[in-house]
Amino acid sequence: MINTIQARVIGAMRYSMDNGVKGAKLTVMNEADASNENRVGYEVATISAPYEILDQIRPYAAHMPCNLEIDAEMRTTGGKITMHAIAVRKPSTAQATAPASEPKQAAKS
Questions:
Q1: What is the top-level taxon of the source organism (predicted)?
Q2: Mean pLDDT throughout 22-44?
Q3: Average pLDDT, the chain
């Protein structure tokens, strides 16, 4: 099953080993669920991906960290459920890609 999520991508890397194994991973950060009293701040996670996905992310490198839409499938590996990215793209709303470090303008009275 493929899900589309929106996440703040803070980095990506890919690897190619001598034995022919290739892959990539996306590092994402999202705010912790405010209703969970055991978490505060941000949660950081990695999402596995195919080697070629870095080419999809490269155009956004200058804007990272930035919000991106990620098509990901859920996989069961070793008894754990993991996410594996299939595609990455800019979200449909322009405001979603604004860097978090940009201050919001105060309302004028």
A1: Bacteria
A2: 93
A3: 86
Pick the CATH number of 2-94 from 1.10.10.10, 3.30.390.30, 2.40.50.140, 3.40.47.10: 2.40.50.140
* pLDDT > 90? residue 93: no
Tell me the domain boundaries of the chain. Answer: 2-94
CA contacts within 13 A on the Cβ side of 102: 11
Residue type at position 33: D
Using alpha carbons only, what angle is made at residue 33 by residues 44 and 27, rounded to the nearest 5 degrees? 15
Q: How far is CA 104 from CA 8, 60, 77, 91, in A?
A: 18, 22, 42, 20
3 state SS of 18: coil
What band does 10 get if pLDDT is binned at 50, 70 and 90? very high
Percent of all residues in the chain with a pLDDT value above 70, rounded to a whole number? 84
Q: Can you give the pTM of this predicted structure?
A: 0.76
Distance of CA 14 to the CA centre of its chain: 14
Query: How many Cβ atoms sit within 10 Å of the Cβ of residue 95?
Result: 7
